[in-house]
Amino acid sequence: MSAQVHPSSIVSPEAVIGEGVVIGPFCVVEGNSRIGARTVLRSHVVVGPHTTLGEDCVLFPHSTVGMEPQDLKFKGEATTLVIGDRNQFREGTTMHRGTVGGGGITKIGDDNFFMAQAHVAHDCIVGNKNIFANAATLAGHVEVGSGCNIGAFSAVHQFCRVGDHAFMGGFTVATLDVLPFMKTVGARETKSYGVNSIGLQRKGFAPEVIEGLKKAHRLLFLSGLQREEALAKAEAELGSIPEVAYLLGFVRDSKRGVHRG
Fold it and tell me: Each residue of 207-242: pLDDT tens digit?
């Protein structure tokens, strides 16, 4: 099945368009871009140069992917944005290409859902099956794992990490790393409020895994032990649980520190 392109849209002859792609009215697809099979551009969508869109993605009106990074050091280099399969970009979302200083690539995995006005800045790495609520924003060089919920109007500071299955409440400002599996909510001060038990249950995590994460959280943040002592004790008692091992490694490898209770 060949691609369908509305006559009002402008598609560069240098763009590679996959089978079954639908490009609706008033879209612009710039050169050196690739659009995977069956991806749909609803209307008024802009795909910038050096951008790869995977298969079965849907881009809603006024979403823009692959524009130049908002970085004053950027001098027009041919950096890239690579987007995986089955992602949804709702109205007004923006995804920027990388910078030379950040490795030259912004990368988004598979099965992510970006609600209206969400933004991913240059050199970010986003995993799979994440939900970005309305106006959730990543600054440059942020790493987001998989299975995360980034709440509405939340912002993640540059160079921070968000661990797998993290839950960030709405209006949270994260200036440190956001712990995996935990609920992190910003009120007057951004804190971690313990294991996201209900969310993990809904995702099918075993009860013993959730209980292990709770025990690890208590050891790390509520026991009064020093950081390395708490890490060692949690590793000795609970390190056989892969999710706990990941949490401990996440804390140990943090360069900015983590949000905690």
Answer: 999 999 999 999 999 999 999 999 999 999 999 999
What are the sequence ranges of the domains in the chain?
A: 4-159, 200-253
Question: Could you say which of 140, 147, 169, 212 is catalytic?
Answer: 140
| Closest to 232 (Cα-Cα) out of 216, 256, 210, 243 | 216
The domain defined by 200-253 carries CATH number 3.20.20.140: no
Q: In residues, how long is the chain?
A: 261
Per CATH, is 4-159 categorized as 3.40.50.150? no
Catalytic, 122? Answer yes
44 an active-site residue?
A: no
**Contact criterion met (CB below 8 Å) for 150 and 162:** yes
For 92-142, write each residue's pLDDT tens digit. Answer: 999 999 999 999 999 999 999 999 999 999 999 999 999 999 999 999 999
**Catalytic residue, candidates 122, 141, 165, 259:** 122
Catalytic residue list contains 56 = no
With CA atoms as reference, report the closest residue to 126 among 99, 117, 47, 111.
111
Looking at 56, 71, 123, 177, which residue is catalytic? Answer: 123
